[in-house]
Write a structure and sequence with these properties.
homodimer; alpha/beta; Peroxisomal Thiolase, Chain A, domain 1; nine-stranded mixed beta sheet; two-stranded antiparallel ribbon; 15 helices; 37% helix
Chain lengths: 419, 419
């Protein structure tokens, strides 16, 4: 088993408000995340101590017409002439940037590294967002065949339901849970439970004297094709993460100096990354992501821990099916049982294995290149007891983040320990 | 001075043919570079030994409509599920990918890392190439003001000529030299001296019975507005690097195992990277690139060598003025004297400080994300005495590569030693 040449710690994290902000560019969002991160450093951060910056970003090229974003982000937070490097692995860009930051500290070249994740996806001057995201698939083979990302994950969901007899309710339960959590996250794009949305629609109909929907439960609401239309069968609107503008920032330092910055640093004790075939049609199965399985195994082996040891995890729920598959790929539940775990509530905030306490990509929002870095923000808050109303009811000494690019062409996993 | 936690060596390099290939995609070009690299490994390479891949690429998003290119490149050379990471810093993407590969090996996590650089720029389905390249400038401020990259470097050339009294002939001399070298590089896009091009035009006019141009020297030809039109004053056609399709590959291993792969490995003894303000208008001067100066200083300090020790250098001559400025930024010539050095022939293949023996970006070609990695190919050949007709006439035990992104928002420098 390979090991890092020295330990790395997280001593600060921050994120911008997630949402749709016509008035904000990537630069604005990143400055917001940087300031939030700076405020989180217990013993204060002199920005001059930062030696390098890594920026995860999927495609400011396509979204904003701006390439070469890393030095711009460095400049905008006053860090020029520090080396600034953009890292791209589609929706895993933020997590992979985090990994490069970790390797850079471990290399001995830097003691203090800033990792950012950024994406501006709404109010685009150039590409349509679904078309732009489709470039993360295989453009030579899959996209000309008519695939989009909802289509890819619909294929995965269909294969999963066929193989394991899963009900669509399992998918919908993931959405309900993540909105329950997101309601309690002040930075989330959607801060409403599904029940709240349902009650709001009923109240609105009553006010306007329109026919009042007869929904009794959240499941009634989510099975209503009008309230929750199909996007790509079996995935409905509330199975899909939204289009989001947002940024996140993580401050990494070498283990030896962590206490100089933080009263309660998080130590990165495991990291794993793997790739997979560029097209789905080259894979032996659709019901698991090999890259996620391998990245998880690498991280567990490095950390010397097992899935049972992980107290909470932020996983990549770009679609609800993705969360269910992730909980199996990471070994939390046996293959084919993740859907039962979701239906039984095992992954709720107070269940035995809380998943996506932040609200996940589904409710917190999914600015694609930022999501992997933003996952570290939730882990930071939960592990330090700073998650407010959504704080889980147990001590979180070990946590995991799991970030996927495309349909699993990339996956990166990290394990954090509070000592 | 920071040091890497362990030494890193180059044990193989390769590149595709550079040129304009309507029939080739990035995937084809990268496979070609990979095979060329594999053939260069003295003691053979089992691809299964490769543990990770870093890919420098500016914008397959804009050029080919394909994002998430790193795992595709890994897949296409049979390396899935190895971790695959794209690195982007505009035209410095290849050099910065090389640096990430070096840091990754130094981190202890990997012993064998493949670094690629790729760009497909001709026959584009989507963006115009000059517009796509302009996204490497500051799109919020500079591009709406009318700047393109020829415009940016024309501003630098104008400022330089004004400040130092340089003649346009100094610029043209750089082009003449780089075409002299490129003629001898079988992988170069343009394998013709300026004198050859001139003779060809004269012969063609004679054949067709047209008026025969009265050029006596290459300078006559290059000062002819018809043969060498202005692109952005004072830069003419032959001051600008071309639009190129190409790829390069570099194999890095930890120092301890270098001899297992190579009879004559190159050791990376210095690396430096720096950034600069996103817009030219925020810089104190236009006649030097601060990021290049700093990256060079870092690399020299790490290597413990001086500019005089460097036997040859591949520098980023995206425009002829860029080469002149680079030779000053790197300390080869004092500020304001690089133009004289160029005019006096000090940087020719047989001069005291050979620069761009490969033909440089000007003649070898400039597939932007590949160029930084391709520079290592030339250094590899010259240091091992494998550069054929263009081999310099002295022992090259120390060499340098210098790769710039945008207008110097990024610069990355490496120093290699043959022991």
């Amino acid at each position: 088993m390979k090991k890092l040449n020295r330990g790395v710690a997280v001593v600060g994290t921050g994120m911008s408000q997630f949402g749709s902000f016509p008035e904000k560019t990537t630069r604005d969002l990143f400055v917001e995340a940087f300031q939030d991160m700076r405020a989180s450093v217990d013993r204060g951060l002199d920005p001059n101590d930062i030696e390098a910056i890594y920026v995860g970003n999927y495609s400011s090229d396509l979204f904003e017409g701006q390439g070469h974003t890393a030095p711009i982000m460095a400049d905008w937070v006053g860090l020029a002439p520090r080396p600034a490097t953009r890292v791209e692995d589609a929706c895993a860009s933020g997590g992979v940037a985090l990994r490069q930051g970790i390797l850079a500290v471990a290399s001995g070249l830097y003691d203090v590294v800033l990792v950012g994740g950024i994406e501006k996806m709404s109010n685009l001057p150039i590409a349509g967002v679904t078309d732009a995201l489709a470039t993360a698939g295989d453009v030579s083979f899959e996209i000309p065949a008519g695939f989009t990302f909802p289509g890819f994950y619909a294929a995965i969901a269909t294969a999963y339901m066929h193989r394991y007899g899963a009900s669509p309710n399992a998918l919908l339960r993931v959405g309900i849970k993540n909105h329950d959590n997101g309601k309690l996250n002040p930075k989330a794009q959607f801060r409403a439970r599904i029940a709240d949305l349902m009650a709001g629609r009923i109240a609105k109909a009553q006010q306007k004297g329109l026919p009042v929907p007869e929904w009794q439960t959240e499941m009634d609401f989510l099975h209503d094709d009008g309230a929750n239309p199909f996007i790509a069968w079996p995935l409905r609107l509330f199975d899909c993460s939204p289009v989001t503008d947002g940024a996140a920032a993580v401050l990494l330092v070498s283990e030896e100096i962590a206490r100089r910055f933080s009263d309660a640093p998080l130590y990165v004790i495991g990291t794993g990354q793997a790739s997979d075939t560029s097209a789905l049609h080259d894979r032996p199965e659709l019901t698991a992501l090999r890259a996620a399985q391998l990245a998880g195994q690498q991280a567990y082996a490095m950390a010397g821990v097992t899935p049972d040891d992980i107290k909470i995890a932020e996983v990549h729920d770009c679609f609800t099916i993705a969360e269910i598959v992730a909980t199996e790929d990471l070994g939390f539940f046996a293959p084919g049982t993740g859907h039962e775990a979701a239906e039984e509530g095992l992954t709720t905030r107070h269940g035995p294995k809380p998943i996506n306490t932040s609200g996940g990509l589904k409710s917190k929002g999914h600015p694609v290149g930022a999501s992997g870095a933003a996952q570290a923000v939730e882990v930071w808050k939960q592990m330090r007891g700073q998650a407010g109303e959504r704080q889980v009811d147990r001590d979180v000494d070990l946590a995991m983040t799991h970030n996927v690019g495309g349909t699993g062409q990339t996956c990166v996993v990290h394990i954090y320990e509070r000592r």
